[in-house]
Amino acid sequence: MSLRMYDLAGADSAVRFSPYCWRAKMALAHKGLAVETIPWRFTEKDSIAFSGQERVPVLLDGENTVTDSWNIALYLDETYGDRPALFDSEAARAAGFFIKRWAELHLHPALVRLIVADIVDALDPVDGTYFRESREAALGMTLEDYCRARDDNLKALDVCLAPLRSSLKVTGFLGGLAPNCADYMVFGAFQWARCSSRGELLRPDDPVALWFGKLLALFEGLGAEAPRAFPA
Amino acid sequence: MSLRMYDLAGADSAVRFSPYCWRAKMALAHKGLAVETIPWRFTEKDSIAFSGQERVPVLLDGENTVTDSWNIALYLDETYGDRPALFDSEAARAAGFFIKRWAELHLHPALVRLIVADIVDALDPVDGTYFRESREAALGMTLEDYCRARDDNLKALDVCLAPLRSSLKVTGFLGGLAPNCADYMVFGAFQWARCSSRGELLRPDDPVALWFGKLLALFEGLGAEAPRAFPA
């Protein structure tokens, strides 16, 4: 058994910050599966063309190629059913899917306004140019303008996080007493910010920060030890 | 076994629209438990003072008094473990709690801007006066002013619903292939709007509307048959 995964890399190839790749790496670690990551950049679409799409993570497991962080989680639970479950029931998986979509549709946009200008600086120059041009075309403004009202953007993040904060205070993890894949779906967003941007987005005593700290420490500090583009 | 529940009633005592009471009624029906509801109004706090708090639902089960829609769900799964589970695992329950808090902190505020002026008209006059005065004091404006920008408020609801819409398209229910208590936590919000307000908030082909229609039909049309203050 030898698992390999294409993983978005920054200018420093040790810096890995894709929220989707972090979901997959945490899911693999939860299953106790070692993975060799292959640094990949936005402009290297040819190297993953064999997967039939243009995004990472791409997981290679023997003859199998699996793309998309959610599909990877389902694949791991199905293929490695004798290892700790990422979701312990169909209902947990369905609710986890809602949480994944909440993260992507509400949390990621709230975070991107706070970190996207930093991300450009964290990327390899060729990737940075591609990233800036494609995003600015989509937004219709410069990334700096998009990020300008930082105080307002921090307030919007605070509002966005209210349900997460409020539920973690009661349940500990989105998975309950222990983390499951629903936690990793949201962890990816904060690890994306941590590894690719300057400054802190959460107060240290925020229940979300406390939860994130526990997830960073999991799997012998897999998240905590990850190199950051702009170390604190 | 004889279950009774205090349930918020409108000017017409057959009209019941509390989102929290609807959660509890759907949870009871899911367990196959019959309940006798007792109409209750906001200004009748004395009649439920025995419960140690001032809100409905209040469930009476023999010697037991249980308040709060979430606590009622947990109580039912614990007490009636031989009946269909509201949550089939601890992880499903924890994720369901996040969904409950999302409904309360993001969905309810998006809905209330669209329905609160109607709610006053649906309430018993004494309750309506209490409700208007207490809410207007909290908001610092009239309810009509609060609801004024209906088109903007519909757009905000649409944005709020994006994760729900997107996940229901894939999973069918928040509980997966069949509804569970996570669905009822969100159902309450839409049934609140349906029973207390004028007009439609969702397009008929919206995946959220299709999901809501399936939930209305459950339990021999418990939700669908419920009297509305302003029938379509």
UniProtKB/TrEMBL annotation, chains A, B:
Residue span, GST N-terminal domain: 8-84
Pfam families per record: GST_C_7, GST_N_3
Example GO biological process: L-phenylalanine catabolic process
Name of protein: Glutathione S-transferase family protein
Any GO MF annotation of the entry: maleylacetoacetate isomerase activity
Native organism: Pelagibius litoralis
PROSITE patterns xrefs: GST_NTER
InterPro entries: Glutathione-S-Trfase_C_sf, Glutathione_S-Trfase_N, GST_UstS-like_C, Thioredoxin-like_sf
